[in-house]
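Repro case for the chain-ordering regression, as requested:
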Amino acid sequence: MRDVFHEQLESVFVDLAGICGRVELAVGDASRALLTGDAELAERVISGDVEIDRAREEVEESAFQLLSLQAPVARDLRTVVAALRMVSELERMGDLSVHVAKIARLRVPGIAVPEEVRPTIEQMATVAEDMVRRVAEIIIRRDVAAAIALGRADEEMDQLRRRSFTELLAEDWGHGVEAAVDIALLGRYYERIADHAVSVANRVVFVVTGDNPTSVTA
Amino acid sequence: MRDVFHEQLESVFVDLAGICGRVELAVGDASRALLTGDAELAERVISGDVEIDRAREEVEESAFQLLSLQAPVARDLRTVVAALRMVSELERMGDLSVHVAKIARLRVPGIAVPEEVRPTIEQMATVAEDMVRRVAEIIIRRDVAAAIALGRADEEMDQLRRRSFTELLAEDWGHGVEAAVDIALLGRYYERIADHAVSVANRVVFVVTGDNPTSVTA
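-- result from build under test --
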């Protein structure tokens, strides 16, 4: 009985890593659409989100089946509930990619990101995509050390967000209010993607060690 | 056995409504701090968030106890999992109130909201606080009709957010980039509070009827 349970649980984690892979693509495509003003690519991210939602529903269904049919207790129970939370967070990261893509689409045929903040936003996009890629690995390998290391990438994201504020609030900002608002919201979306990535990684730490890192709810 | 289960489940929902009451206070206090530039009140919201976090942990513990000891199936199982999700969303609404309070604190002794957008932001704050108040009632009374009606308040929030963009992107906006960025982020925070309120209400609909409103994951 327990063996069937752990096999099914493993399959849930494989599905979670698969969703994480889709989210990585969505973050990457949304960022590319943003930085190149590619309306078609932005559209693909926006319309493709429904597949992440569907994959989420499937994982939820599997988790409910596990809870119903196997009635796990103690750590097994907490692992299944952790999986349910992870899939919610992954889906939310997909939604945030859609928000990035929508800002991209809104400014076509222009580009939402003025040249002088481009390095900062590009770096945010790179850090976000990289964090999501690492989370997929962390889920598959249950890699606690990698999960803990992810916090450092999150610190880089916080620094980048502060830098973007410094840039858009500088005396010589010449791109007006609209571009500044776009940059501020983009910064918020990337920051949230990073926060969720850390939270998902922390849940893996919990699943493996039974310890709940305090930052899990940050 | 089932009776004990339903009594304990009811007590979880009473606790959820209690947390919702705390969130309502946090939203109201953060908004008041924002609109009056009250640093002390902002500080109280920020430091008080730990109590919402603690209350969340207690509800989670109770829900895990229910799952472990009673091994509910079918709708009972889904209701307990819904409660776990509701408490996460309520805690997140508390975090968003902290974000509002931090913008308030950042601008003291000034006020983050310029006079000409004040009516819009004031209205957002009122709608948000009102929505959270209604959610507490919806949880206690399992009021499906009220939960469905909450969608209309959310539409008002969306309209207010659009209005705030019109105002800060107007030709005659005279408050510079910093104030515009504050307003854009505040709009985002209030919008997310409203989204979570709708989502919590939709989970009540699910708990009562077994139907999952499609907007629950929006």
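Ordering looks correct now. Helices of chain A lie at 2-36, 39-70, 74-107, 118-141, 144-168, 176-209.
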